[in-house]
Amino acid sequence: MTSQRIAGLGRIDRRCRCTGEKPRTVPRQPGALAVSGGLLIPTATSADQQDLEAEILLAVTSLTGARNGRAKHVVNRVHPMPDGLRLEIDSDAIDCFLGVSLPVLHDGKLRGIPGLRPRPSRDFVDLRVLGGTASVRVHGISRTRWREALCHKDTRGVPLWRDNRDEMDEREVSALRARGMRPLEVMSAVLRRFGLFEGADRVESKVSAKDVEIEWVGGPRADVVAAVLTESDCRIPGVILDGGSCLGLRRMVRLVATHGCDDAPAQPEWAWAELRNDGRGADPEFRDSDVMRTAWACSDITKLFLLLRKLGMTKKQIAARTGLATANVSEILRGRQVRSDRDLVAIASGLRLIEEQTSPDCPDDIRRCMA
């Protein structure tokens, strides 16, 4: 294998760590990898496309920022292209995602993305904005899943997204005019790199005229994310870092749009090394904490989950408590071992919440597993 081929594999791995893509899918996309030394993640080329992706970023982070447990994890992976974007939404978050994205009138107030119209297909839904060419394709929504999502939608509002006219409602037009200045290119670029926050329990965004502030809980450290977003070949062009912090499990970076030159800096190999470990950049002191030791003490997670099921908890309740996907809970109940530090930390944290809320007559087996 040539050194050029080895370098190419490294670039694919780095891109996939930021997007969540599978390595085998990247080379099949035209222009997926730039020439040597170039950026690996393309920028949306049109202002309309950047605007739509910026709105979807706000929708996604409004869900992962919610504290009601509805959508702890929203985006599984992104497939960025110069003229469009493909998203894979977690099946448990589809209803919520459509609920905050599709425009609806509630008591005369507009909710959702103005002008957004869905076009369902066999196994995906295209989200397009009237009056332009911007489009985001959302995978994981079959026709059956689309109908199920519609059944769960709030029927109290007026669904403007059902309007078949080729023009926006006047309330949508007014909402567009009322928007202030925002760094659309930066917001779009953050969405295209959303896989970088894998392992975070919650991702939130705050936007001003020139900067985007991203906050998250758990997952990679702030300095690791900052290095990838500003120094690597997966960086966001034309941005500088204006602050970052780690306080316990809370992390934050603030990105500011600039108009200077975008010289290629040295590759932050230390940051990629952090992201390659099982803890996804977790603080060493956290990996050695009481929570981590509790997780290892309860390493027979299958037995524990079976006991929780006997106690009356559903698979979805266990998933919500521990931060795991419902499908992963099902696999663990069938005997799959849990070896990931990140999953063990999430389970241990969730078990502490269960312990705090468990009644005095809880079976002793459960208490011993949570001790």
Describe the structure.
This is HTH cro/C1-type domain-containing protein. It comes from Kibdelosporangium phytohabitans. By secondary structure, the protein is α+β, with helices and mostly antiparallel strands. It folds into three domains: 3-40 and 193-284, no CATH class; 47-177, no CATH class; 288-370. Helices cover 41% and strands 19% of the residues. It is built from 15 helices and twelve strands. A five-stranded mixed beta sheet has the order 1-2-7-6-5, covered by helices on one side. It has a four-stranded antiparallel beta sheet with strand order 9-10-12-11. A three-stranded antiparallel beta sheet has the order 4-3-8, covered by helices on one side. Strand 3 (104-106) and strand 4 (109-111) form a beta hairpin. The radius of gyration is 22 Å and the shape is globular. The N and C termini lie far apart (51 Å). The model is unreliable at 1-9, 67-71, 278-288, 353-363 and 365-371 (pLDDT under 50).
